[in-house]
Amino acid sequence: MEQYVIKGGNPLNGEVEIGGAKNAALAILAAAIMTDETVTIENLPNVRDINVLLQAIAEIGAMVDRIDAHTVKINGSFIKDVTVDNEFIRRIRASYYLIGALLGKYKKAEVALPGGCDIGSRPIDLHIKGFRAMGADVDIAHGLVIAEAEKLNGTHIYLDKVSVGATINIMMAASMAEGKTVIENAAKEPHVVDVANFLNSMGANIRGAGTDVIRIVGVEKLHKTEYSVIPDQIEAGTFMFAAAAAGGDVLVKDVIPKHLEATTAKLVEAGCKVEEFDDAVRIISDGKLHHTQVTTLPYPGFPTDLQSPLLAVLTTVPGISRIRENIFENRFKICSELTKMGAHIEVRGSEVKICGSRLKGCRLRAEELRGGAALVIAALAADGESVIEGVPFIRRGYEDICRDLRYLQAEIYMEDILSV
Ligand code: UD1
Predict the structure, then answer these.
(1) Residue 169 C-alpha to ligand 1 middle, in angstroms?
(2) What single string gives the DSSP state of each residue in 185-232?
(3) Mind listing the pLDDT tens digit for each residue in 305-364?
């Protein structure tokens, strides 16, 4: 069993390079099977969820050639099966993108119901509503989502809730439908734009990604492309919050500062100095921060995926801070772990009230990806040593957070307790 051992209280100093966006890459990998020509994808993050998806794509017959840790070539012409199911794919969320990709290309898909971190009920009714509106029959049986259509027709879809997953999934299927699809109340996240750019580079006709109305004119075929995934704004934000909590001077490289505006705004409000460059941001924190308030919202609002990292920071800041979580109903699970460290947090439904204090290191358990990253941040800021179990959750989305934090002079190492 892997665990992180962290000695807190050291400021972070130095540079960290940010990898490709996990959530963009997952959708792009699924979309890559929609052409019979070879697609090359660069700047792929080498994280668990990506490897699980690549394995599933290989299992249905596509050629998956991992050129190196961050580059893959995929050829979907060899696909012989539209049923995607294995014990690992059932645990990730992004498996749902294979429904849109296979349904768009082959008009049939049978994909294991998505899993993912336990942060709320996470239905996929909007995805299904979209596929049905395009003329597909969609059923759920034996743990699989089964979607089939004689042909897919362009249509008009209003999403009752802003959903990143539903927006991208419908966009993928609509790229190979007959006629024009309009998605209203679409998600505007940078990765929605990245997936649209990727599909367009394969010959799709998608306009308006990044606004709340996306228009897609279906094409018969998609073709080969070479594409580089955008930087991961959530990974970048995690290191920014780590620097804020521990104090120090950190240059976060290979990012798109515009995508980080909500994070930057909160850090400045809390008393950090943030400098923006073309493809980097520098955070300077004396570790003496001010309390603040935040509400999670779809992009360009403050991202739900950074709510737990910010929560960890605010537990260390004197005064009363408040957080409202608007996207997922079960995203305050780390509060009980932070309380073990001496944090004063009151959870009331979708809101928390935090009364900041110094934290003490202790044994902690990560139970989901971003909550796990938040525990790492809390441990970096705490007095004494912490041990964090549940490392595989953190590795779903961070290539090697331990290595990267060590570059920033943190005292952190990974221990495999079977080998000690
Ligand atoms: C994706 C991300 C996740 C991120 C989230 C919000 C992936 C693999 N995961 O998750 O990291 O936290 O976006 O940025 O990319 N909803 C419905 N019905 C649906 C779909 C969604 O009610 O059919 C609701 C959800 O319960 C949630 C909200 O819509 O309250 C937003 O969810 P969505 O944007 O779809 O998140 P995910 O795709 O699950």
Answers:
(1) 12
(2) S----HHHHHHHHHHHHTT-EEE-BTBSEEEEE--S----EEEEPPB-
(3) 999 999 999 999 999 999 999 998 888 989 999 999 999 999 999 999 999 999 999 999
Burial of 3 (0-12, 13-18, 19+ CB in 10 A): buried
**d(CA 156, ligand 1 centre) in Å:** 21
> Which two structure tokens, joined as six digits, stand for 20?
């490709």
State the Cα–Cα distance between residues 166 and 114, nearest whole angstrom.
13
- Known catalytic residue: 117? yes
Token code pair at residue 323: 């957080």
Under DSSP, is residue 285 helix (H, G, I), strand (E, B) or coil?
Answer: strand
Kindly give the number of the ligand 1 atom that is closest to the alpha carbon of 191.
15
What would the two tokens of residue 311 be? 């929560």
Q: Can you tell me which atom of ligand 1 is nearest the CA of 120?
A: 26
Q: How far apart (Å, rounded) are the C-alpha atoms in residues 170 and 132?
A: 10
Q: Is any atom of ligand 1 closer than 6 Å to the C-beta of 171? A: no
129 lines ligand 1 (CB under 6 A): no
User: Are 47 and 23 in contact, with CB atoms under 8 Å apart?
Assistant: no
The residue whose C-alpha atom lies closest to atom 17 belonging to ligand 1 is 123
Using the structure block, give the residue that is written with the tokens 């990765």.
Answer: 191
> Cβ(350)–Cβ(376) under 8 Å?
no
Give the residue among 359, 307, 306 at the shortest CA–CA distance from 337. 359
Rounded to the nearest 5 degrees, what angle is found at the Cα of 176, between the Cα atoms of 175 and 179? 85
Distances (CA, A) of 377 to 97, 99, 120, 310: 31, 36, 23, 9
Predicted structure pTM score: 0.96
Residues in a beta bridge with 137: 148
Q: Which amino acid belongs to residue 362? A: C
- Kindly give the number of the ligand 1 atom that is closest to the alpha carbon of 328: 30
399-409 pLDDT tens trace: 999 999 999 99
Rounded to an integer, what distance in angstroms lies between the CA atom of residue 31 and that of residue 102?
A: 9
Q: How far apart are CA 45 and CA 42, in angstroms?
A: 9
d(CA 313, CA 241): 7
Residue 336 has which token pair?
């009980």
The overall longest dimension of the chain from CA atoms, in Å, is 62
